[in-house]
Amino acid sequence: MPVITIAGNDGISVEKRREMVKKVSEVVADAYDLPVDAITVLVQAYPKESIGVAGELLSDRK
Questions:
Q1: Which numeric CATH code is attached to 3-60?
Q2: Beta bridge partners of 44
Q3: Where are the domains of the chain?
Q4: Which of 12, 40, 43, 61 has its CA 20 to 30 A from that of 1?
Q5: What is the 3-state secondary structure (H, E, C) of 7-32?
Q6: Which residues contact residue 54 at a Cβ distance below 8 angstroms, ignoring those fewer than 6 apart?
Q7: pTM for this one?
Q8: How do residues 28-60 score in pLDDT, each as one tens digit?
Q9: What is the spatial distance between Cα 11 and Cα 30, in angstroms, rounded to a whole number?
Q10: Does the pLDDT at position 11 exceed 90?
């Protein structure tokens, strides 16, 4: 069964996460020709002080 991991910062609401998980699950289930309940989505949310981009923390970017 497919497992999808989405990693990003923690700046997304629970409502938006719920919507994202539903849509991603539907697309992957369709691609694999599986029922949606066969899809697992893991959302890893990192605080901005734990993500570095271009040599600096997101929390330090203006």
A1: 3.30.429.10
A2: 7
A3: 3-60
A4: 12
A5: EEECCCCHHHHHHHHHHHHHHHHHHH
A6: none
A7: 0.83
A8: 999 999 999 999 999 999 999 999 999 999 999
A9: 28
A10: no
